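pls design
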């Protein structure tokens, strides 16, 4: 069952630094078991926002995963798992990764999540980027009720 939509907000960011600050602001709302889905074209700012988020949660510098499917950051109160599904194949591959297991342990951030609707259905936040101008990004943030993850 899809969680209830709670709130939708739109932001305009005028620099990578502003996008990182928005990531740090979002970080404070996250708890164990939260999944954040990042959607938007190549170079639209997904990793940039995740850098702000990861820095705020763990003090660590987030890499651009591109060729790596998962980066783990473990120096914060909770582990943060940063996935990039740009190069992931069919939905079966998503099952193989077992991404839901990571949610039991910490916070999960996924770039290119819109390729997998089953991911979007479990999101606590969906963040969508669109380029407005060279340095301006429109960032839409939709918040959903937290799912209780009991097993
Ligand atoms: N307002 C802004 N917010 C975020 N990034 C910006 C902004 N203005 C310019 N940029 C630039 O846009 C690029 C965004 O790259 P980033 O790696 O964050 O995108 P991405 O969505 O993760 O791309 P990919 O799909 O390739 O992973 C960076 O080079 C960054 O400096
Ligand atoms: Mg990226």
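designed seq:
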């Amino acid at each position: 069952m899809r969680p209830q939509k709670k709130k939708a907000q739109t932001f305009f960011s005028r620099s990578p630094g502003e996008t990182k600050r928005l990531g740090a602001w979002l970080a404070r709302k996250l708890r164990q078991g939260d999944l954040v889905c990042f959607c938007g074209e190549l170079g639209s700012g997904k990793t940039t926002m995740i850098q702000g988020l990861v820095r705020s949660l763990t003090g660590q510098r987030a890499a651009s995963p591109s060729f790596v499917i998962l980066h783990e950051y473990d120096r914060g109160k909770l582990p943060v798992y940063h996935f990039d599904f740009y190069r992931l194949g069919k939905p079966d591959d998503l099952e193989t990764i077992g991404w839901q297991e990571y949610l039991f342990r910490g916070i999960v951030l996924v770039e290119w999540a819109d390729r997998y609707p089953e991911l979007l259905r479990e999101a606590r936040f969906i963040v969508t980027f669109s380029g407005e101008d060279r340095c301006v990004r429109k960032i839409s943030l939709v918040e959903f009720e937290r799912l209780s993850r009991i097993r």
